[in-house]
Amino acid sequence: MTWLAWRQFRTSMAIVAGAVAVVAVALLVTRPGVMDIYRSTGLDACTTSCSEQAIAFLSRARASAAGPLYWLGFAAVYLIPAIIGIFWGAPMVARELETGTFRLVWSQSTTRSRWLVVKLAAGAVAAMASAGLLSLAVTWWSAPFDRANDNRLIAEVFGARGVVPIAYAALAFVLGALIGTVLRRTVPAMALTLALVAAVQVVMPTMVRPHLIPPETFTGAVTAEQGFNELMMSPDDGYMTVVPKLDIPGAWVLENSALKASGEVFHGPMDAKFCGPDAGGPRSCEKWVASQNLHQNAVYQPASRFWPLQWIESGLILVVTGLLTALCFWWVRRRLT
Amino acid sequence: MTAAIVTTGLTKRYGRKTALNDCTLTVPTGRIIGLVGPNGAGKSTLLQLACGLLRPTAGTIEVLGGRPGSGPEHAAKVGFVAQDTPTYAHMTIAEHLRLGSALNPGWVSAIAQERIARLGLDPAQKAGKLSGGQRAQLALTLAVAKRPDLLLLDEPVASLDPLARREFLQGLMEHTAEHGTSLVLSSHLIADLERTCDYLVVLVDSRIRLAGEVDELLAQHHRVTGARREAGSMPAGHEVVYQSHVGKQSTMIVRSTAPIDDPWWTVEALSLEDLVLAYMTEARGFAPERVLEGQR
What we know:
The complex is a heterodimer. Helix content of chain A is 64%, strand content 10%. Chain A is elongated and about 85 Å long. Chain A has helices at residues 2-40, 51-63, 67-99, 101-105, 112-149, 155-158, 164-183, 186-208, 282-290, 306-335; strands at residues 216-221, 228-234, 239-244, 252-259, 295-301. Chain A folds into two domains: 2-213 and 305-335, no CATH class; 223-293, no CATH class. Chain B has helices spanning 43-50, 72-77, 93-103, 109-118, 132-145, 162-179, 190-193, 214-220, 272-284, 288-295, and strands at 5-14, 17-27, 32-36, 58-63, 78-81, 150-153, 182-187, 199-204, 207-213, 221-227, 239-246, 249-255, 266-268. The interface between A and B is medium-sized, with 20 and 35 residues.
């Protein structure tokens, strides 16, 4: 059975493995250049208040030949689960059902459970190994960028670093196999797998990840000195949007707003004497906002939770993967009769 | 001796559609069994239930004394070739044999090699490039080389031309005679199986209409013709399978172990094909009058 699984799987496996290898080699080759910039801008040796060095590093690194690879790394890590789900998972059972070869292989002296165990195990191990290698390479290569940006906890970066891509690849593979088993048609199974993998990649960071560990809350008076991330106003009706600065390095900010004493979000109305086109410039408006007795309310995940969140999310995804695997077995044994 | 296949009240439904309805049947071992019936009668369903690909909705089926799909040991005893003789298009013949050898502990490589060589097939050829007949032979080779005690072939000759058909059946009979394998062949054409099988099962509209030794069935069935009479006039013990009344003449096909000695009737022997057609026609509910109306 192992031989058959390998024989059926080797071509599609080689294509994905080859693509991963190409990306890994590109990262390996360009890494010394990135490190040179990292050292020469002083970011490497810097320990405290390094924003100048970080800005210098980012502007030089992005302009260098390695610049586009930063984005390529993102694309590769986000795409590999979908690719694995579509090209490894979806056809694995669906093609056998579609072409009738399941009748050939299931009438040999073996059980369909064993057949499915070997196929799923081979695919899942290969999926996790490829995604793991890719994520490892990208995480390692991007480390200087992540240090400079100090943002590896924000949703977009988090999903392309560490161990979560491994879990997503396993999930996508098993999801594809299950959809193929249920739909019994390869092409529709591929399309649905793509849609569902993309949906999971959107739903997890927006609706699930923020709550995996209860987030921290920060409250404090809004002052003119701390500054504002955003201070927008509409002179016609006086409507304002105020986002005070939040000085928590590397935090993933989930919510940040200026509240009135009543607890409502402050939206003006602005006073045209201090804010707006006829007033004395932005400083006067900031001072006026600070005098409105507002307090800042911020909800965030601190940077120190990067690894705890990585492990919890990976564990959660792998549990779901396990449930889908069980469902796949149940379907093959009970429903395809 | 354990029977090859024993079913009691065997029923298989796909959603609302009934593919096999309340079938009770005992098929002996060591025979070549012809499973005949029109398309959609439930032949494939019965064979797939027998090899464990399908599970009964109701009733039971026992194959060689065990429940189909109960495990690899049982699966090793039953060989099955599905209707469209599926093979892996991108895999070569040699790789199919390797598949068979990897998945069947009882695999006899010599049987497989010898069959492929005798058929003049190139082991390096991809299965997708084979003709329908060659593919059927490859699928059969896989089923035969695992040395099953019971071999189930679903419409095995449908994709073969008449010459290949004869060669295929001949090779199959030699093999079963040599190894004492029981064999079930299904077909919607009795002519395919007439010279091959010694046991017959007729399946029409999801039900078993007839099952028995071919010789006994032929000895028990008679075509009687004579001046018009109703079927009810037949003495007890004479079962009318089929009747047709045209003008002043009646023709009936009668099943009876006792001889028909009424001088009213002219009694003739039946061919296997006529016998099977009589059962199929009767089951389909074609009254002779309606047939005639249809012809006008």
